[in-house]
Amino acid sequence: GDSVTQTEGLVTLTEGLPVMLNCTYQTIYSNPFLFWYVQHLNESPRLLLKSFTDNKRTEHQGFHATLHKSSSSFHLQKSSAQLSDSALYYCALSEGNYAQGLTFGLGTRVSVFP
Amino acid sequence: AQTIHQWPVAEIKAVGSPLSLGCTIKGKSSPNLYWYWQATGGTLQQLFYSITVGQVESVVQLNLSASRPKDDQFILSTEKLLLSHSGFYLCAWRTGLGSYAEQFFGPGTRLTVL
Predict the structure, then answer these.
(1) What CATH number is associated with residue A56?
(2) pLDDT averaged over chain B?
(3) 3-state secondary structure chain A
(4) Which of A88, A92, A98 sits opposite B98 (nearest CB)?
(5) pLDDT tens track for B56-69
């Protein structure tokens, strides 16, 4: 079945430095839809950004990601991390059977320090 | 605007006791509804989904069951709780019929099994 891989379990960095979270996926569906969700402490996940267009950069709230179908990747980046970016980040894939919910990766916890 | 409500907010239960968690969505007709489970700091595991009243599909059961008695209501239950059932239970819905549809999460129910 479909799967999403996030290689980093924990990312720690200093405020102001760039951050990149890796996401790769596997699917038999030729037109995958990829999502990034963010979950702050004691909150539920909320959508950060999404894409289905190959090689097109998608941006929201200072974060950006580009879907690369050739490498099955959808990495999340930000040029300058803020303390408020400390959270759990999930990459997710929408399967061809859209009735079923999104498939999530294991998540990457980001901790930003002053 | 659509709103999603989950009850209870938190629950502490004994091993072997029954459980019933509820989810209601207002402002959306015939939504696709989902139950997810999140172990502390863990990934979002989809449990069940439902596209219409009376119809529920299982993704991962974990000794739980789900029902959709009304168009706007989704129930998660078990007759006997296990320690492994502890975690954060999230109800979610999708905005439309299509793989690009966003998925929104409710506020969640935090369950502790002792």
Answers:
(1) 2.60.40.10
(2) 92
(3) CCEEECCCCEEEEECCCCEEECCEEECCCCCCEEEEEEECCCCCCEEEEEECCECCEEEECCEEEEEECCCCECCEEECCCCHHHCEEEEEEEECCCCCCCCEECCCEEEEEEC
(4) A98
(5) 999 987 899 999 99
